[in-house]
C-alpha cells in the first residue's frame, strides 16, 4: 500500500474564507433536506429540535418532534406539565436527561407557567440555562433569532477540520479552541446569511463530508479544501465494520459520545 500523503496546509486567507462560505451556502440552497424545524424561527420549536437531535437519528426525531409540540405547544405548557408527562412523551428517544433538563429549563424561563416568558436570544444567556452548552446556544441564537452566532458540533468540526485544519485533533484542547475560533471567523456579516451558513455546515457534514466517507466529487468546497488538495479523499479513517447512522444536522457537544454526560450537567 502506498504511503499516505501528508495533509496540505493552505493559507487561511480572507479570499479563501469568502469562497468557502459562498460555495457552501449556494450548495445548501439547492441540496438541503426539508426538515420541519427548518421551517420555523420559533425559539421553543428550535430548542426542542436541537435537544432531540442530540444522540438521535433524524428519522426518529421527525416522528417525535410534531407529537411533542402537539402535547406541549408552548414553553408555558411544558413548564406547567408534570415531569412524568414530559418523560412519557420523550419515551423512545433515549437519553432522558435531555428531557429532564428541558423541563427544568422551561420552569426556569417560565416560572409558574408564565405565558409571556421568552427563551433568551443571547448565547451567553442561553448557556446559563439548564442543559445548554455552547453548540445549542449558538444553534438557538442563529436559527431562532438569526443572531450572528457560531456553532460547532461533530459535523461542523469535521468539515472545518478537513478543509482548514488538517492533521489537527479538533475534538479537544487547542484543536477544539481553534475550530471554534475558525467558525467565528467564517461567519457571514448578516444574521440571515448566518442562518443558512450554519445549517449548510452541518448539512455538508451529514451528507457529503461524513465520518466514514468523503464524497469529494460532490463537495462544493473542494477547491479550497486542504484535505482534498493533499489527495486524502474518498474514504475516511473509520474502524472496519463501524455502524453507519442516518445523517443528522446537529449534535451537542462536539462529540456525540459526550452529549449524554453533558446533558446531566448544565454545560
- By DSSP (H or I, 4+ residues per run), the number of helices equals 13
Question: Span from first to last CA?
Answer: 44 Å
CATH class: Mainly Alpha
- Outline the biggest β-sheet: 2 strands, antiparallel
Q: What's the Cα radius of gyration?
A: 19 Å
The CATH superfamily is known as Hypothetical protein, domain 2
Structural class: mainly alpha
Specify the CATH architecture.
Orthogonal Bundle
The gist of it:
This protein is mainly alpha-helical. The N and C termini lie far apart (44 Å).
Word description of this protein:
With 267 residues, this protein is an all-alpha fold. It has one domain (14-237, 248-263): Hypothetical protein, domain 2 (Endonuclease III, domain 1). 52% of the residues lie in helices and 1% in strands. The protein is built from 13 helices and two strands. It has helices at 14-31, 43-52, 58-71, 75-80, 83-90, 97-109, 123-127, 134-145, 154-164, 173-186, 191-207, 226-229, 256-263, and strands spanning 213-214, 234-235. It has a two-stranded antiparallel ribbon. Helix 1 packs across helix 11 (191-207), helix 2 packs across helix 3 (58-71) and helix 9 packs across helix 11. The longest helix is centred in the first third of the chain and has 18 residues, at 14-31.
Amino acid at each position: 500500500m502506498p504511503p499516505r500523503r501528508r495533509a496540505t496546509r493552505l493559507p487561511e486567507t480572507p479570499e479563501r474564507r469568502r469562497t468557502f462560505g459562498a460555495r457552501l451556502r449556494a450548495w445548501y440552497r439547492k441540496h438541503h433536506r426539508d426538515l420541519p424545524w427548518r421551517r420555523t424561527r420559533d425559539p421553543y420549536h428550535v430548542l426542542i429540535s436541537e435537544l432531540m437531535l442530540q444522540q438521535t437519528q433524524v428519522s426518529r426525531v421527525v416522528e417525535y418532534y410534531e407529537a411533542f409540540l402537539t402535547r406541549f405547544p408552548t414553553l408555558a405548557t411544558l413548564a406547567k406539565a408534570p415531569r412524568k408527562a414530559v418523560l412519557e412523551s420523550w419515551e423512545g428517544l433515549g437519553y432522558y436527561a435531555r428531557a429532564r433538563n428541558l423541563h427544568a429549563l422551561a420552569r426556569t424561563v417560565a416560572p409558574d407557567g408564565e405565558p409571556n416568558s421568552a427563551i433568551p436570544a443571547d448565547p451567553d444567556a442561553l448557556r446559563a440555562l439548564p442543559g445548554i452548552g455552547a453548540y445549542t446556544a449558538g444553534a438557538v441564537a442563529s436559527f431562532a433569532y438569526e443572531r450572528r452566532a457560531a456553532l460547532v458540533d461533530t459535523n461542523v468540526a469535521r468539515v472545518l477540520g478537513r478543509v482548514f485544519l488538517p492533521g489537527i485533533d479538533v475534538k479537544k484542547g487547542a484543536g477544539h479552541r481553534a475550530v471554534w475560533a475558525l467558525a467565528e471567523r467564517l461567519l457571514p456579516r448578516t444574521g440571515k446569511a448566518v442562518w443558512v451558513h450554519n445549517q449548510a455546515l452541518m448539512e455538508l457534514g451529514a451528507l457529503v463530508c461524513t465520518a466514514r466517507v468523503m464524497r469529494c466529487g460532490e463537495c462544493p468546497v473542494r477547491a479550497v479544501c486542504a484535505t482534498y488538495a493533499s489527495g486524502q479523499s474518498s474514504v475516511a479513517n473509520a474502524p472496519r465494520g463501524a455502524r453507519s447512522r442516518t445523517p443528522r444536522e446537529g449534535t451537542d457537544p462536539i462529540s456525540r459520545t459526550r452529549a449524554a454526560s453533558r446533558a446531566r450537567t448544565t454545560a
